[in-house]
Write a structure and sequence with these properties.
Strand order of the largest sheet: 2-3-4-1-5-7-6
CATH superfamily: Peptidyl-tRNA hydrolase
Radius of gyration: 15 Å
Shape: globular
CATH class: Alpha Beta
Helix content: 25-40%
Distance between the termini: 41 Å
Strand content: 15-25%
Number of domains: 1
Structural class: alpha/beta
Largest sheet: 7 strands, mixed
Order of helices and strands: EHEEEHEEHEHHH
Length: 191
């Protein structure tokens, strides 16, 4: 008897609802939507607290998830979805916005600090570990003295939106490479 292949869980972070759709903080949802389109799936509500799509990216079995909670409470749905699908932290990829990277820059890493990102802080607390994979999508620092919390809840600017589709596609490519090839080969390709 063969056991089914454990999936890779790919979580895009964001805030639910139309009010937040175009916000910088929702770039994780945009990447998750792009990946869902690539596997030909539609998100459906799951009892663990996320909207999910199951499928394959290349040869890899994946579960895509978008927590239905607000960003700062992402940990519960992520931990619940991980537990339901029996996904260990090392097979969890979280896609999120990153203030400390220039707009459109994509960086991959395992573990580390949360850099003030409350969604990551919530996930770390709920999982009891920081040792999960992260795909960081640069949204740049806020201009002047703007509060970073206000900045990430604003929509992308007109000039940023011109290239947003390209950068979301690039980030989705990086997620696919990370799931298929592992951290170091994906970093070598996308850094």
């Amino acid at each position: 008897m063969t056991t089914p292949e454990a999936p890779t869980l790919i979580v895009g972070l964001g805030n639910p609802g139309p009010r937040y759709e175009g916000n910088r903080h929702n770039v994780g949802f945009l990447v998750a939507d792009e990946l869902a389109a690539r596997i030909g799936g539609k998100f459906k509500a799951h009892k663990a607290g996320s909207d999910v799509v199951e499928g394959r990216l290349g040869a890899r079995r994946v579960v895509l998830a978008k927590p239905r909670s607000f960003m700062n409470l992402s940990g519960g749905p992520v931990a619940g979805t991980s537990k339901f699908y029996k996904v260990a932290p090392e097979s969890l990829i979280v896609v999120h916005d990153e203030l400390d990277l220039p707009y459109g820059t994509v960086r991959l890493k395992r573990g580390g600090g949360e850099n003030g990102h409350n969604g990551l802080r919530s996930i770390t607390k709920s999982l009891g570990t920081k040792e999960y994979l992260r795909v960081r999508f640069g949204v740049d620092r806020p201009p002047g003295r703007m509060d970073p919390a206000d900045y990430v809840l604003k929509d992308f600017s007109g000039s940023e939106r011109k290239d947003l589709g390209y950068f979301v596609d690039l980030c989705a490519d990086a997620v696919e490479a990370l799931a298929a090839d592992g951290l170091e080969p994906a970093q070598n390709r996308f850094h």
